[in-house]
Amino acid sequence: MALHSTPVDTTATTTLIRGADLVAAPWKNGGGVTREVAAFPVSAGLDAFTWRVSIADVAQAGPFSRFAGIDRTLALLSGAGMLLDETDAGAQVVKTHALTQPLDIARFAGEAQIGARLVDGATRDFNLMVRRGAAVGETEVWRGETHRTLSADVVLLFCASGSVSVALGDEAETHVLEADDTLRIDAPRALSCTVKGAGALLAISIRYT
To answer: PANTHER family attached here (predicted)?
Structure first.
């Protein structure tokens, strides 16, 4: 994967991750395909990561992989959507998470029994997984021109659609993100961020506990 890192200030470092460079791999349960965007520790296995961000293609209905001790966040990227049925030990549905509009978000525990029903054909979704007790993660949707202050251990700006430009701190250079590109910012501390363009971003903030 081609990564390009540049310093932003005395603490923060940026890494541009192009969507075209992401590598497809089978799900943990073999029921679909995932493309890892970033993870910590680097190259950690599916049972050893502190956090992991990925894109998944869901071609058919079926159960989700289960990850004990992991908090999960899913956002719909494309397709007509899916309904995630959370069931109890007796296979009774206790909650249904509906992802039917672009960037609809669902949050649930990784050990939960989740079965996916597709609304009308294949979907693509964005996944954030964080190990409970080791880190916490927040996901926000940013649309249009946005001015924010970033402060976390890691921030990932994922371009969910369209194209956007991102300016950080006092940098003269802007980072241009197309769909499925990610700008990773390590150790931003009160770092100003300006986003311009017609696209939409998923902003993920990760803090270690």
So the answer is: PROTEIN VES
For residue 136, how far is the Cα from the chain centroid? 13
Handedness of CA 113, 208, 143, 173 (dihedral sign): negative
- Please name which of 102, 146, 109 lies closest in space to residue 124, comparing C-alpha atoms: 102
pLDDT tens-digit readout, 95-145: 999 999 999 999 999 999 999 999 999 899 999 999 999 999 999 999 999
d(CA 65, CA 128): 14
Exposure on the CB side of residue 137, measured as CA atoms within 13 A: 28
**What tokens appear for 5 in the block?**
């890192």
CA distance 120 to 143: 26
C-alpha Rg value of the chain to the nearest Å? 17
Backbone φ, ψ for residue 20 (5° rounding): -65, -20
Round to whole Å and give the CA distance between 167 and 86.
Answer: 40
Name the pTM for this structure: 0.91
Report whether 130 contacts 154 (CB < 8 A): no
Please give the Cα distance from 91 to 89 (Å, whole number).
5
- Indicate the pairing of strand 175-178 with strand 200-208: unpaired
Cα 104 to Cα 81, 126, 129, 135, distances in angstroms: 9, 10, 17, 23
